[in-house]
C-alpha cells in the first residue's frame, strides 16, 4: 500500500512511482446470489425526493451529462464509450471538448457515487488495449484515474488543511470575500462570455467540462482574487460528480496553494476561449443573449463597435453585462487579426477537439510551463 505520509507533493513524482512499482488489485467479483433477508425483516419503501421536500430535477436538452445514476447506467456508459464506439481510442484528442456527451468518458459522477469501480474501469482499459488498440488515449484514461487516487492520498496526508485559506503551502494570500463579484461569477453574469457560459451550464445541469472548471476557477481566484473556498463550496453544492478530495484538491491547485509545482499560473480567458471554442458555439449555446454575434467575436463583445453591437441587438450593461474585470493580457488575443473579419476569423476544429498545438502538452492545467495559458 502506498504510504501517504511519504506522498510526493508533485503529481508527476507520484505517477512515476506508482507506474513502476505498483500493481492494481483485481476488482471483486459479483456473487452469483445473495443470502435471503432475515425472516420478518421489513424492507420498507425507498424514499422519494418529495419525502425530503425536494422536487424532481429539471432536465435540459443542452446538458453534456443527460444520464441517470446507478450501476447499470454506469456499465452501459462504459460499454458505449469503449466497445460500441471506440471513443476511448481518441479520448486524448477530444477530452477538452465543451459540447455533447462523447468528448470525454463522463465516468466521474458514477465514480463519485460508487456506482462503478475505478479498478473495473482499469481492467476494461487493459482488456481494450489487448483486444483493440493501445495508444496515448487509452493511457490517458488511466492517467486521469491516477490523478483521482493522488488527491485521495493528498487528503490523507494533509487532513483538514485541505480546507484552510492558506492551503497546503501555508501561503498567506489576501483573499477577498466580495459578495457582488462572487454572485456575478456564480450566476454567470461576469460579462466574460466564456466564464458565464460555463457557470450557467453548471447551475442548470450540475455538470461542467474539465476545461471549463480550470478556467472559471482561475478567473475567480486570479482575476477576481476571491477566496477560493467560496468557489469550492459552490462546486460542492452543484456538481453531480462532487467528490471532496478531487474538488478541494483541484481548487487548491487552481488557487496556487496546493500541489502545483509552479507559481502564479493564470489562465487567459480570451485565449482559452478561442483555443477551445474557436467559433463561439459553446458560448452561444449557454449565453443566448449573444447568439447574434457571429464566430469568435462572441468571446469579447466589449471589443466590438457600437454598430456591430446594435446589429446584434446587444446593449452592454443592459442586455448583457459589461465585464467586471478586464485582464491586460487579454488584449493581445482580442486584437489578433489572422484573417479579415477580426479575431473571429480564427480557424479551428470546432468546440469538441483539442487544438493541435495542445495535444501533446499533457494536461495544460498541471504541466504547462507557460504561465499565461
Describe the structure.
The protein is an all-alpha fold. Among the domains are: 71-157, Serine Threonine Protein Phosphatase 5, Tetratricopeptide repeat; 179-267, DNA Cyclobutane Dipyrimidine Photolyase, subunit A, domain 3 (Orthogonal Bundle); 269-345, DNA Cyclobutane Dipyrimidine Photolyase, subunit A, domain 3, CATH 1.10.579.10. The chain has 16 helices and no strands. It is globular. The chain starts with 10 loop residues before the first helix and ends in a 6-residue tail after the last helix. Mean pLDDT is 90; it is low at 337-352 and 359-372. May have a photoreceptor function. This is Cryptochrome DASH.
Major beta sheet summary:
none
CATH superfamily of the domain at 179-267: DNA Cyclobutane Dipyrimidine Photolyase, subunit A, domain 3
Named CATH architecture of the domain at 179-267 = Orthogonal Bundle
CATH topology of the domain at 179-267: DNA Cyclobutane Dipyrimidine Photolyase, subunit A, domain 3
CA gyration radius, whole angstroms: 22 Å
User: What's the mean pLDDT score?
Assistant: 90
What order do the helices and strands follow? HHHHHHHHHHHHHHHH
> Per DSSP, what share of the residues sits in E-state strands of 2 or more residues?
under 5%
Strand segment tally? 0
Which word captures the global form?
globular
Number of helices: 16
Q: What class, by secondary structure content?
A: mainly alpha
CATH class category of the domain at 179-267 = Mainly Alpha
Question: Helix coverage percent of residues?
Answer: 40-55%
Which blocks of ≥5 consecutive residues have pLDDT under 50?
337-352, 359-372
Amino acid at each position: 500500500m502506498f504510504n501517504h505520509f511519504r506522498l510526493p507533493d508533485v503529481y508527476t513524482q507520484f505517477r512515476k512511482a506508482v507506474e513502476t512499482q505498483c500493481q492494481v488489485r483485481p476488482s471483486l467479483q459479483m456473487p452469483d446470489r445473495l443470502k435471503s433477508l432475515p425472516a420478518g425483516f421489513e424492507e420498507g419503501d425507498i424514499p422519494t425526493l418529495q419525502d425530503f421536500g425536494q422536487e424532481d430535477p429539471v432536465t435540459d436538452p443542452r446538458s453534456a451529462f443527460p444520464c441517470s445514476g446507478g450501476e447499470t447506467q454506469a456499465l452501459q456508459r462504459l460499454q458505449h464509450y469503449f466497445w460500441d464506439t471506440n471513443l476511448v481510442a481518441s479520448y486524448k484528442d477530444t477530452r477538452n471538448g465543451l459540447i455533447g456527451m462523447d468528448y470525454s468518458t463522463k465516468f466521474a459522477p458514477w465514480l463519485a457515487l460508487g456506482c462503478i469501480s475505478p479498478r473495473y474501469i482499469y481492467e476494461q482499459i487493459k482488456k481494450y488495449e489487448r483486444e483493440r488498440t493501445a495508444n496515448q488515449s487509452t493511457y490517458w484514461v488511466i492517467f486521469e484515474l491516477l490523478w483521482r487516487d493522488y488527491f485521495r492520498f493528498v487528503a490523507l496526508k494533509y487532513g483538514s488543511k485541505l480546507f484552510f485559506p492558506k492551503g497546503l503551502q501555508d501561503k498567506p494570500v489576501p483573499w477577498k470575500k466580495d459578495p457582488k463579484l462572487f454572485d456575478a461569477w456564480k450566476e454567470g453574469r461576469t460579462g466574460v462570455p466564456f466564464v458565464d457560459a460555463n457557470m450557467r451550464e453548471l447551475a442548470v445541469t450540475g455538470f461542467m467540462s474539465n476545461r471549463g472548471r480550470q478556467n472559471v476557477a482561475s478567473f475567480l481566484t486570479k482575476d477576481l482574487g476571491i477566496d477560493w473556498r467560496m468557489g469550492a463550496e459552490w462546486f460542492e453544492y452543484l456538481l453531480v460528480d462532487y467528490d471532496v478530495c478531487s474538488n478541494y484538491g483541484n481548487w487548491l491547485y487552481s488557487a496556487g496553494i496546493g500541489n502545483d509545482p509552479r507559481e502564479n499560473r493564470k489562465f487567459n480567458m480570451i485565449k482559452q476561449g478561442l483555443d477551445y471554442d474557436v467559433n463561439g458555439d459553446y458560448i452561444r449555446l449557454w449565453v443566448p443573449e449573444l447568439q447574434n454575434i457571429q464566430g469568435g467575436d462572441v468571446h469579447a463583445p466589449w471589443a466590438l463597435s457600437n454598430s456591430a453591437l446594435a446589429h446584434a441587438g446587444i446593449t452592454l450593461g443592459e442586455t448583457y453585462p459589461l465585464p467586471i474585470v478586464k485582464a491586460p493580457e487579454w488584449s493581445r488575443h482580442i486584437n489578433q487579426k489572422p484573417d479579415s473579419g477580426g479575431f473571429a476569423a480564427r480557424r479551428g476544429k470546432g468546440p469538441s477537439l483539442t487544438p493541435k498545438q495542445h495535444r501533446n502538452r499533457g494536461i495544460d492545467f498541471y504541466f504547462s510551463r507557460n504561465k499565461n495559458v
